[in-house]
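Whether sequence alone determines local backbone shape is best considered at the level of individual chains. The sequence in question and its structure tokens are set out directly beneath this paragraph.

===
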Amino acid sequence: MSEDPQIGKRLGFLYPLAHKILRTHELWSPSRWIPHSALATDLYILSCWIIEIIIIFLMTSFQNTEILWICLFISIFRYLDLMFVLLSILVKGFYKNKDWASSHRVTFLVVCNAIEIMVLFAIFYFGFDKLYPGIGSTEPPIDNFFQALYFSVNTGTCIGFGTPSPDGWITKLLTMFEGSSIVLIVIAVIGYISNEKSKENKKHE
């Protein structure tokens, strides 16, 4: 990344603040420690999906408090990792990184991230429903992981059939986060493609 931008440029104090927060991603995220290659990125994403499949198996097979909390903690960590990546795409026009891939690859990876986010929120809905049946519940209640995934996809794609619907305040909070995350993905993809197209047009002028 480039040096911290000066206060007052582009987004005022928000820009350098966002810049500093995003730089912390390099300190705690495994996605920033892997080699900058397409193969390494694909293997990292594949390993995340495998871990999430294992998490789903553990949560549905052994529904005790300790396992549920461990699975939720790992899933929350991955969700935060994804959000930092998407926010980095949004501010790409404000700082330069020579390691960004082509616009087609970024679009494909972000779509994969959108699917992964819906799976992660299904894990959240299922886990919190089992841990806190009152404040983490839906109406009708989620009985299995497929119902949690169904509810997550409905929320993430803004279909909203109304069954199930969020009942407890934790579930309502999660639905707001999921909806906002998917909107962020759409903005990130559109913004990135627009930026790349603008660069191409300037080259041809």
About this structure: The longest helix spans residues 169-204. The CA atoms of residues 99 and 106 lie 12 Å apart. The mean pLDDT is 83.
